[in-house]
TrEMBL record:
GO cellular component: plasma membrane
Protein's cellular compartments: Cell membrane
Protein name: Membrane protein involved in the export of O-antigen and teichoic acid
Bilayer topology: Multi-pass membrane protein
The keyword Acetylation belongs to this UniProt entry's keyword annotation: no
Primary location group: membrane
Length: 481
């Protein structure tokens, strides 16, 4: 079983990295081909549409992952019923919401004061496609498979969207074509996911009574949690879309997506840690759970500190792949990098809260921090523009994770950190010294940043290898092996 979990997590991890690379490249292509203002318009439309479909999904994107495994062995008919209801309902509801938004588009534009009419029209018209796609992706996971979601979402949808964006940006020079291409890629991805569900047996029987009320009783409370979580992540873009120019929003998006690369290590841990931690918690092996969490957090923190310093030192060189960065954009990246470093350095703390039976506590955390984040963004954006959004978001991330750390310590009786061993600290110092010296190499621009990243990481890895790892660092590998 452990090997199976590790294999599934590995597929998800590799696919996630590929998908993140495609999505990051999509922003680069739009900014390079059409300018930062176009990236700002695209980002604002995408964030607004993705926030709206949270309410049309009704939490059914999570329900399919819970109820498909339950009904899969019990009744193929009930399984089909869950699949049809969970995908069909959001599509129908989002069609209704889409119609209302389109009919009131002019009024919304007068309130939002941002974006092109044609762009937002396409985003609103595409809501049913987005809603159906996201639920279908999660439905395949309910069949205890990850390769279908990885292929349909991270490879087909994200890869095709990148290709079409490149053609639209550099050949047709048209943002409308970029958005149409994005939804064309999502539509193809939806058909791929539906075909995958059929091959998994999800449409092989006639749907029968499958207790839709039971599904909705589980899913509806998750809408509030999902909306709160998105407000923590997206409040900055929503508010910037109202108060600042599209160019400024575009550079903010470039800086934010670059800073989010620091979370890759955390996502790697999250692909394995939850299932492992759940088994240990349920079996009462709290000491081993504590040890695994401390070890995981230590290495994520070390790599995040190193990555944060790298982004700060080479902020201008890295952002130059989007165009000619402004001083404000460099400062935004530095501030967001610190915030993302803090988010990554606490490790999979959210999973620990949920796994230890504190789901309501985590929901309360999300709602509280979302409220704080919105308030801070409104205040700071009006006084400092996009730089204010970075400050507000960084503060919100810090509060969010500090609260969670205290709760894990208090409620789950798990200490968040243990002392770093001297070898890892020395390795970090040597890597940071290398980073400081590399800037004097007779190189320039992105190439210098690439060389610096390679040399710094190599020194960190080699130093740890020579100085030796702690015995407890082998716990994770032994647990998943």
């Amino acid at each position: 079983m452990k090997k199976s979990i590790f294999q599934l997590a590995s597929i998800a991890l590799i696919g996630g990295i590929v998908g993140r690379g495609f999505r990051y490249s999509l922003d680069v292509v739009i900014s390079r081909g059409l300018g930062p203002d176009a990236l700002g318009v695209f980002t604002f439309g995408l964030v607004i549409s993705q926030f709206v479909i949270i309410f049309s999904r009704l939490g059914l994107d999570q329900a399919v992952q819970k109820f498909i495994p339950i009904y899969l062995d019990e009744s193929p008919e009930k399984t089909t019923g869950v699949v049809v209801f969970s995908i069909g309902t959001p599509i129908l509801l989002s069609t209704l919401i889409s119609s209302i938004l389109i009919l009131n588009l002019d009024m919304l534009l007068s309130i939002l004061g941002s974006g092109q009419r044609n762009i937002l029209f396409i985003f609103f018209a595409g809501l049913p496609i987005l809603a159906g796609f996201e639920v279908a992706v999660n439905a395949t996971k309910g069949f205890k498979e990850t390769k279908y979601a990885v292929f349909g979402d991270n490879i087909v949808r994200s890869g095709l969207a990148l290709v079409l964006a490149y053609v639209s940006s550099f050949i047709y020079n048209d943002l409308v074509a970029v958005v149409i291409g994005y939804f064309a890629a999502t539509t193809i991805g939806l058909f791929v996911m539906l075909f995958s569900i059929k091959s998994l047996g999800g449409f092989n029987s006639k749907p029968t009574t499958f207790e839709p009320r039971k599904l909705l009783n589980f899913s509806l409370p998750l809408v509030l949690l999902a909306a709160g979580g998105r407000l923590v992540s997206w409040a900055d873009v929503m508010i910037l879309g109202v108060y600042v120019s599209n160019v400024e929003l575009g550079w903010y998006q470039a800086a934010y997506q670059t800073s989010a690369l620091l979370l890759i290590v955390l996502h790697a841990a999250n692909s394995i840690f939850p299932a492992l931690a759940s088994d240990l918690y349920e079996s009462g092996q709290m000491q081993k759970l504590q040890q695994i969490y401390n070890t995981t957090t230590k290495w994520i923190a070390l790599l995040s500190i190193l990555g944060c310093m790298y982004l700060i030192v080479f902020s201008n060189d890295i952002l130059s792949i989007f165009g000619e960065p402004t001083t404000q954009a460099n400062n935004i990246l530095s501030i967001l990098a610190v915030g993302q470093m803090i988010s990554a350095a606490v490790g999979p703390v959210g999973y620990l809260l949920v796994m230890s039976g504190n789901e309501r506590v985590e929901t309360a955390n999300t709602i509280i921090v979302a409220t704080i984040n919105i308030s801070l963004n409104i205040f700071f954006v009006q006084t400092h523009g996009a730089l204010g959004a970075a400050i507000a978001t960084g503060i919100s991330f810090t509060i969010y994770n500090f609260i969670r750390l205290i709760q894990v310590w208090w409620l789950a009786q798990i200490k968040p950190f243990s002392l770093f061993n001297p070898a890892s600290v020395i390795s970090l110092v040597l890597a940071l010294v290398t980073l400081a010296l590399v800037v004097y190499l007779p190189l320039d621009g992105v190439f210098l940043a690439m060389v610096a990243g390679f040399l710094t990481l190599s020194v960190f890895a080699l130093s740890n290898y020579i100085l030796g790892f702690e015995e407890k660092d082998r716990v994770i590998l032994e647990s998943i092996g």
